[in-house]
Please model this.
Amino acid sequence: MLGEFHPALGNADWAAVWLTFRLASLVTVILIVVGTPIAWWLARTRSKWKGVVGAVVALPLVLPPTVLGFYLLIAMGPHGPVGQFTQWLGIGLLPFTFPGLVVASVFYSLPFVVQPVQNAFEAVGERMLEVAATLRANPWDTFFTVVLPLAKPGFITAAILGFAHTVGEFGVVLMIGGNIPGKTRVVSVQIYDHVEAMEYAEAHVLAGGMLLFSFLVLLALYSRKGAVSWK
Amino acid sequence: MTTLEAIHARFQVIWPGFTLDVDLDLPGRGVTALFGHSGSGKTTLLRCIAGLERQGSGSLHFKGEVWQDRERGVFLPTYQRPIGYVFQEASLFPHLSVRKNLDYGRKRVNGGHKVSLDHAVELLGIGHLLDRMPDRLSGGERQRVAIARALATSPELLLMDEPLASLDLKRKGEILPYLERLHDELEIPVCYVSHSPDEVARLADHVVLLAEGRVRAQGGLRETLARLDLPTAFTEDAGVVIEAVVADHDEAYHLTRLDFPGGSVVVARRPEAVGRRLRFRVHARDVSLALARAEGTSIANLLPATVTEIADADTPAHVLVRLDAGGTPLIARITRRSRDHLHVMPGAPLWAQIKAVALLG
Model:
């Protein structure tokens, strides 16, 4: 049933692993940059839009990835607003490209970064900001010298979760990226292909690797001092 | 008091269930106590002065500089006001050592350091704590570091929001002497929020009494505390503060005589040398009145005085009698019946019998 056992990974497998790693790293960096201002706004605002924005950010937590992927595909397609914009910019269409995958993954993993960072910002508290202001620190200065250092554990949690969640995505990738070797075929899709082709041995190696990776990531996360601060 | 020396503050803050509406001229020197019960608006007023409350309208002129003026559209944000602020809880930055906490504000101030870091560290007695992290400090030590941190910015105005309230009695006693040294050694005007009459009596030169968001009385410490027309809430603890000089020690009986304008009192032996100044508080409930100088009494402190004013006290059974003892005001709390029996009325000469005095410091 298992077929002939090949402990080593083939070239296509390694390409998928490398692509997955590049995708998750890039997405994590973008998420920290994009997610931090959103988290700051959500942590500090008294606007009536807080609930709406918070709910939109959290949507990927509950939506089936196919639904998210479907709408992103439409938006980035030739008739969608994003597609029209990217064509106008002269970079063509995003679906079935690596950049398209990056954009989709950013949406998909956004709550996993925003929520821990938002919680960390909220935990810093208003008082610390007031103290810094009475000590002559302007708001930017306060952000970099007081808020960021105090929120560091939240950022570490956010980066780990954002990276791991991007590594683990499947549905959105299939909807947006398809299955182009070296461009959009990530590990989860590669496993799917192996299983389709009855190559269970190869599937075993990749799936086992993912299992081990995910466990180690979560182990690192839950063993940290102060445990996990995300809801 | 010219405008160049004074602080003029006018604030109006309206929140659901609370309104602060004050218009104040504060002296540009010494310690001004903002005194009142919780909910009286004293902390809100302090936060307005610091620029921490942006709601509401107001103006703030500090020694001729405009910090805030609604009509002119001026609002200096907190970080541009030359203030030091000590919060009720020490609020040290937990990720920085004591030394880095002290440096935080200091290195963000350009120009003249009127207060050197060494002086602030020495004043507050925290030299041995510099390399510790805040979570390794006791409550009293933390508050001392917070005060030194505020001083290290060489503020032109020091704002303190009940810096002792979160501490137990022992820690309070540990910090009060440092606060007195600030008062004696630095020329920085201080606004000090407190609800403790003893703290106010010990530290303040000037008092602003707040109740329900409004100023009920203000003025010099002695005159203000000796007023009778204040809300009942204050008269429960009515009394006066007297500034005296150590005149003489009686080694045989272990007593010390303190002189003040209008008389003297004898108290248990004090460690202070002859000539030192001391403040003490006389509670209205510790003063009784007699028509003649009492003989054969164990009360040693008898002062001739004249009644100046009579007012209602906190209970219908009592009245407060304000007296003038040779220039020093006193308040006595006596029963309404005694008032009638002794025919106490303004102008009447009497003897005040002081049962106890509370020495401050």
Q: What stands out?
A: The CA atoms of residues 210 and 216 of chain A lie 10 Å apart. The radius of gyration of chain A is 20 Å.
